[in-house]
């Protein structure tokens, strides 16, 4: 039997070593709260819960007593977490998350139970969507409260397994208050080809999103997947997730959803333009500088504001007829050299002359 009777709240992190110890029973204090995810874990593995004394008071020291368990830093009690999750102030945020979920579903940015949404409401508290619920069907009472380590503090449903992606962004970007992950088809088409759309084509895209990054693929829900965004989160509010979709962060859930709309519409527009068979007309560098100045006044991030960026890295139009540019280490395409152009022109000319001589 594993003795956890010194804990007032039992979360998933408290059960990590349970299976390795081969415990079939766990002793908890009477009145101690077990989070939904922890209770589900115990039920799945057939672990019996035994209740001990009424209070979770420290036990008298004994020679055979196990070493003191290290407590997490000031966790909220379950009752306090539940009150926070159901407070009037948080209710408005939960309703906004549900409204955004319906927008994502209506625009076909999510299917099945795909996608997830979160909002940071405190130094260590984040509201998020549950797992296995369609974003169209979301209700305020479905939402969960977790801490920055992913432990569920309150909520009747289990939290999304991809919450760690959101939490990595919150930790890396203090100004991020909301994170949204979804699978808009046109932006995802770029993500599954490992490509990023070019800049300086549509003003709204330049101001609200601008240059995007694309991450390597990792299995969704894993720590490795969550960490793929770390090199980009600070300087990009929208990131293409390799073979998976996109993630956006903003000051509100609604604004994060706006960025998802902007990037997907932009990618869609580029695909339509490619079908016209005419070159794309790009915004000049001078006019693009005006858009970047506006973006900076709005307080929106952009990798082009990074003083470490070189001039060659700021311009991604060395291939002016391309609508999808392969990213390199900085997210920009390499330049096409004059030698490469001459080689292509010579090859085409030789092919034409051979065809004429054959006649």
If you had to describe this structure to a student in words, what would you say it looks like?
It is a single chain. The chain has 359 residues and is α/β, with parallel strands linked by helices. Among the domains are: 2-51; 78-274, 3-Layer(aba) Sandwich (L-fuculose-1-phosphate Aldolase), CATH 3.40.225. Helices cover 36% and strands 13% of the residues. The protein has helices at 18-21, 36-44, 78-85, 88-106, 163-172, 185-193, 203-208, 223-227, 253-274, 285-297, 311-314, 338-358, and strands at residues 2-3, 9-10, 25-28, 33-34, 48-51, 116-120, 126-128, 144-146, 152-154, 178-182, 213-214, 238-241, 245-250.
- Shape assignment: elongated
Low-confidence stretches: 55-67, 69-77, 311-341
β-strand amount: 5-15%
CATH first level of the domain at 78-274 = Alpha Beta
CATH topology of the domain at 78-274: L-fuculose-1-phosphate Aldolase
Under CATH, the homologous superfamily of the domain at 78-274 reads Class II aldolase/adducin N-terminal domain
- With helices defined by DSSP (H or I, 4 residues minimum), what is the helix count? 12
**What is the end-to-end distance?**
91 Å
Derived structural class: alpha/beta
Q: Could you estimate the helical fraction of the residues in percent?
A: 25-40%
Summed over residues and divided by their number, the pLDDT gives a mean of 82
Strand numbers in spatial order across the main sheet: 9-8-7-6-10-13-12-11
Q: Spell the H/E element sequence.
A: EEHEEHEHHEEEEHEHHEHEEHHHH
What does the radius of gyration come to? 26 Å
